[in-house]
Amino acid sequence: MKPTQRRLLPSTSALAAFDAVARTGSFSAAASMLHLTQGAISRHVSLLEEQLGVTLLERTGRGARLTEKGKAYAEGVSEVLAKIRSLSLVAMSGSEETRLRLAILPTFGTRWLMPRIPDFVQKNPEITISFATRIGQFDFRAENIDVAVHVGRRDWPDADCKFLMGETVVPVCSPDFREGHPIAAAADLLGMPLLEMVSRPGAWRHWFSTLDISEQHREGMVFEQFSNVTQACIAGLGVALMPIFLIESELATGKLVRAFDWAIESESAYYLVRPRHKLDFPPAVRFAGWLEDQIARFKQP
Predict the structure, then answer these.
(1) Domain identity same for 140 and 181
(2) Is residue 95's pLDDT more than 60?
(3) Whether residues 160 and 276 fall in one domain
(4) Helix 27-34 / helix 12-24 crossing angle, nearest 10 deg
(5) Domain check: are 290 and 157 in the same one?
């Protein structure tokens, strides 16, 4: 392996140490999490920064704070480590007939689905789930995925799309942004930076159309993940159309506010997607039934 290639492949120990500090904001807390000494954690992080030639953390009297490059690196490292753990579990687990490979949406998976997964595990202890994060359509055979939770439309080729639920969206922004950009009417948003989601093309056009506004709105930043667009809103970069059920905590704490109080049903919806060649796969059938039950409970007042 060439020296440059070796430099781009840090040790998992260093990555795990950095990930723990990034999550906790503290070297001592990271040491406790990984059952190492604080000095060992510090050495791992220092070696990682030296290997990359980048400052990832700013040491403070109370702990550590991520630099801008550190924030971006931490997000990617967290995903990579999760993928490695998932692959390790797959390698260690039992029969293919009891393993379910599930593709989930990042924010929906983290905020809505994961808190409910323990119920599925309790009711189906013989099934081992391998999680993968996917946005948009993909090839089930090539990706070796059994079932996916998808947002968009019922247009996945060679697959069964089971409607789960719709979503109500509303324009949101940070309190400071709204204070600095008075919005008396919906048309006032036309000239403001409107943040967009790759998975929801035309969302703003549809929102304006429900108010009989046909003028072209100003194009803004485009994001793949709701977590990123949420942070962009909180940072005051613009206004985004967000599903209310995914940002309840930000609205409750005041990190986000409604830019204009007009909520509509999105053109996009959530679907459970299964490839036709695996419709009878037992773990996927069990998961589909369980998820439909969870959706029904969620929809109850």
Answers:
(1) no
(2) no
(3) yes
(4) 130
(5) yes
Cα separation of 269 and 226, whole Å? Answer: 15
Cα 279 versus chain centre, distance: 27
Token reading at 51: 């290997």
Strand (E) or helix (H) holding 239:
strand 239-243
pLDDT at 197: 87
Kindly report the pTM of this predicted structure: 0.62
User: What's residue 15's pLDDT?
Assistant: 92
Measure the CA–CA gap between 190 and 15, rounded to whole angstroms.
44
Question: How many domains is the chain partitioned into structurally?
Answer: 3
Question: Under DSSP, is residue 258 helix (H, G, I), strand (E, B) or coil?
Answer: strand
* Residues linked to residue 271 through DSSP beta bridges, in sequence order: 150, 163
Q: Are 147 and 292 in contact (CB under 8 A)?
A: no
Q: How far apart are CA 195 and CA 268, in angstroms?
A: 17
CATH number of the domain within which 211 lies: 3.40.190.10
Percent of the chain with pLDDT over 90: 60
Q: Residue 220: what are its φ and ψ, rounded to 5°?
A: -125, -165
